[in-house]
Write a structure and sequence with these properties.
4-stranded antiparallel beta sheet, two-stranded antiparallel ribbon, 6 strands, 26% helix
Length: 122
């Protein structure tokens, strides 16, 4: 029997944001005020490849603010890859924090499998 799981990611950890940027070879995320099409927002700004405006992470609410004009100013797949990288990096941080280690496997469908080794290095 299969199950459908829906996860809504909240971006709250600046260390995981920076790790996701490194993973994707993006510029370092910058904390401050960032210009979007209609005004400015404050948060941790991530510049995705070929995006006109940054994606701004509100670390308090966990929400993202961005303007890609329905894909005309930035491909949704770039944001999806960033969110995947953030989620993997956040999971790795929490796994290490609990004293465990993990291995990572890139799957053919683009997903990433993390396998946790309980109790330390593996």
């Amino acid at each position: 029997m299969s199950h459908i799981v829906e996860i809504q990611t909240e971006v709250r950890d600046p260390v995981a944001v920076q790790a996701a940027c490194r993973r994707l070879k993006l510029p370092v995320a910058v904390l401050g005020s960032h210009r979007l099409f209609q005004g400015s927002v404050t948060g941790l700004g991530v510049q995705l490849p070929d995006w006109r405006y940054p994606v701004v992470c509100d670390l308090v609410s966990g929400q993202l603010r961005y303007d890609n004009f329905g894909g005309r100013w930035g491909e949704q797949t770039r944001l999806d890859k960033f969110l995947q990288a953030y989620t993997v990096e956040k999971a790795r941080i929490e796994i290490r924090r609990k004293g465990h280690s993990c291995t990572e496997q890139q799957m053919e469908d683009g997903s990433i499998r993390l396998t946790v080794q309980m109790g330390g290095a593996g």
